[in-house]
Amino acid sequence: MPADAGLEELADIVQRRTFLHRMVHWVAAIRASVHTKLLAAFLIVTALFIAMALASLQTIVSAAHQSRLLDEAHELVALAQQGESALARQMHYTDVALLSQDEVAIAKILRENNQFNDRLAKLEAAGTADPALVEQVRTSQDEAMAVVADIANAIRDGKLSAVTGTLLHRQERLDTEITTRVGLLVAAQQDRMARLRSNVAATNRRSLLLTSLFAVVAVVFALFCGFVISWSFILPVREAQGFLDKVAGGDFGARISVPNRDEFGMLAERMNHMSAELQRFDGEQRRAASELGRLNLQLAQASKAKSEFLANMSHELRTPMNAILGFTEMLIDGLYGDIPDDLKEPLTDIQLNGRHLLRLINDVLDLSKIEAGRMQLALGEYSAREIVDIVHVSLRSLAAEKGLEFVVSVPDELPVAYGDNGRLTQCLMNLAGNAIKFTRQGRVEIGVEQVGADLVFRVADTGIGIPPEELDNVFTEFRQVDTTVTREFGGTGLGLSITRKFVEMHGGRIWVESDFGKGCTFYFAIPLRVSIEE
Amino acid sequence: MDAQTILYIEDNEYNRKIVRQLLVRTTYRLVEAVDGETGVAMAQQQLPQLILMDVQLPKMSGLDATRILKADPQTSKIPIIVITSFALSGDREKAAAAGADSYLAKPYSPRELLALVRKFLPEN
Predict the structure, then answer these.
(1) Which residues numbered 10-39 in B keep a CB inside 8 Å of some CB on A?
(2) Among partner residues B22, B106, B108, which is closest to A330 by beta-carbon distance?
(3) Contact between residue A509 and residue A525 where contact means Cβ atoms under 8 Å apart
(4) Cβ–Cβ under 8 Å, residues B42 and B14
(5) Count of Cβ atoms closer than 10 Å to residue A477 Cβ
(6) Chain A contacts of B17, Cβ < 8 Å?
(7) Strand A519-527 to strand A454-461: parallel, antiparallel, or no bridges (unpaired)?
(8) Whose CA is closest to A142, among A100, A108, A170?
(9) Cis before B107? omega within 30
(10) pLDDT for position A279
(11) Is the pLDDT of residue A487 over 50?
């Protein structure tokens, strides 16, 4: 990997610092697909290799032709040399004929002469020999043959000795002349062969050079195309990486700019579109968030105003109640002197209704506070038995007035519990008060027991019960089983829903079991140790 | 011996009237103030034996008045019974924190109030 990274770094420097940079941009800006660009590059490189192959083929053909020429030149040189040998032997036999005066030698001269003429004719037919030179050789040869004829005549006439000197002299002159001319002929053929040979070598060199050149150009061009095309892809990809990092970093609306007019260009366009959309969404979100914040602030202010109003109402409502209940009590207590008997009952009625009104006010204020989320539990240690006892003592006289049996059931051993003593007392008081209210005869039992980590409070009565279809509604605000019940038994319908809310604030639950017409049992379960998460 | 003086600081006329009439048949002497500032001034001036302090008062709240009186060495020994209409969780703690000796929630029973007064200041 490090080597690869180093290589890439080097390539990066090269593409940035050289003319290749412009080429990369140029290729990127070509309006063609990536596929087309790659295909074009491969085709160009392939064409270069094909051209190289054609050039090599042509060289091979030309080399074959030249080597055939060379072979022919070889043959011609051989012919010329054979002719030269035949001539030398002819001269030799001529000398022999002159010395031995023998006709046998004459025959040999003629044979060699034929041989020579044959080679000369072939050389002439090849068309490579100088025709003037060939003519001169032939003339000299004719003269030499004339000398031979003279020698043969002189031998036949027996007068050779007389002319030997002359003939010898002629013979020697011709000998030199022919030998020189044939030598020229041979040299010309050898020259030609040497020329051809050097031609072949030159052709071979040129072919090697051409092939190498093609190969180098093809390889360089392939590297060049690969480099430029790959960088025309790498650069937009890098741009895209930077762009995506920016967008991921929250810079919505960032733009990517690439010279590409291929798939990468289209991709960049889409990314810009995406970025613009993100920016738009982001703007909308921010506007919505600030709007929400503003509304939230308004709500908080409204809520604060409501809480203040509630606190004030609490004071304003209770202040006259204090006067009403206070004066009534003082009247009944005889603070203003003895009261006539017929006023005692109406005064007691005023006191009862005043207390009832106070309870209603307290219920409404409690519920409002709970709804506003302003109700807080005052947590502390308490005894469940004490709660049951307080409720029992408070309602004992009420039950007795109605002739109801009112009993308490608490186990001897109960651990110290933790919760809002006052509110739990209020809950049990509500349930027990209802039970006594809705029971015409029979008994009401209140109790508590520990079930696991919970305390389960229980209020059972033998009252009118609750129809099955109403069991789910009894804890809803302002609900009583029906309006006739309200008329007969009174009540706001708030007690049960406040009780439920306090139970839920303690992390507990409340439920009812009823046998319609035979009474019902309310339960609420509270954790023994309440923990309220702030 | 002088009559035992009780200072009642309360802005509502009828509530003052209840206490006034409640104490008619006792030997206590009642002085009244209708706001927090006047109440504090009267307490410092007259040094009553017991103070009944309403919480919601004009000019200065009953809790602030209680704090001032409990911080003043002249008046710090005078028992203060705070009377509040916020019968809500935490009010008892707030009253205790301000230095109140006892706490009574409105609406109170005059009988209970008298019993509490006698507890702190037994009648001569």
Answers:
(1) 12, 14-15, 17-18, 21-22, 24-25
(2) B22
(3) yes
(4) no
(5) 14
(6) 323
(7) antiparallel
(8) A170
(9) yes
(10) 92
(11) no
Q: Measure in Å the smallest separation between the Cα of B90 and chain A Cα atoms.
A: 6
- The answer to whether A85 and A119 are in contact (CB under 8 A) is no
**Cα–Cα dist A243/A258, whole Å:** 11
Distance from CA of B73 to the nearest CA of A (A): 32
* pLDDT tens-digit series, residues A54-89: 888 888 888 888 888 888 888 888 988 888 888 888
ipTM value of the model? 0.86
**Chain A: residue whose CA lies nearest to B12:** A319
Are A259 and A25 a contacting pair, CB within 8 Å? yes
Strand A509-515 versus strand A454-461 pairing type: unpaired
Half-sphere exposure of residue A494, counting CA atoms within 13 Å on the CB side?
A: 14
State the sign of the Cα–Cα–Cα–Cα dihedral A143, A146, A152, A154: negative
Under 8 Å CB pairs connecting chains A and B tally to 69
Starting at the earlier edge strand, list the strands of the sheet with B5-9: B29-33, B5-9, B50-54, B80-84, B102-105
Give whole-number Cα distances, A498 to A314, A326, A458, A476, B64, in Å: 17, 27, 17, 9, 33
Over the stretch B42-70, which tens digit does the pLDDT of each residue have? 999 999 999 999 888 888 888 899 999 99
Mean per-residue pLDDT, A37-60: 87
From chain B, the residues in CB contact with A314 under 8 A are: 85-86, 88
| pLDDT score at A491 | 57
Q: CB burial class (10 A; 0-12, 13-18, 19+) of residue A202?
A: exposed
Which residues of chain A have a CB within 8 Å of the CB of B109? Answer: 325-326, 329
Check CB contact under 8 Å for B107 and A321: yes
- Separation between Cα atoms, residue A139 and residue B26, nearest integer Å: 188
Q: pTM of the prediction? A: 0.49
Q: What angle do CA A83, A85, A89 make, to 5 degrees?
A: 115
Check if B107 contacts A (Cβ < 8 Å): yes
Alpha-carbon gap: B2 to the closest alpha carbon of chain A (Å):
25
> Chain B window 54-93: which residues touch A at a Cβ cutoff of 8 Å?
56, 85-90, 93
Give per-residue burial for A72-91: e unless 16+ CB within 10 Å, then b. Answer: ebeebbebbbbbbebbbbbb
- Report yes or no: B120 at the A interface, CB cutoff 8 Å: no
| Nearest chain B residue to A315, by CA | B85
Distances B39 to A34, B43, B56, B63, B69 between C-alpha atoms, Å: 93, 6, 13, 12, 10
Tell me the pairing of strands A405-409 and A380-382. unpaired
Cα A228 from Cα A48, distance rounded (Å)? 18
Residues of B in contact with A311 (CB under 8 A): 86
Which of A314, A326, A423 shows the shortest C-beta gap to B110? A326
The pair of three-digit structure tokens given for residue A494, joined into one six-digit string: 């708030």
Alpha-carbon A483 to chain mean position: 68
Phi-psi region of A158 (alpha: psi -120 to 50; beta: other; left: phi over 0): left
Helix axes A103-126, A34-100, angle to 10 degrees: 160
Q: Measured between alpha carbons, how far apart are the two ends of chain A, in Å?
A: 54
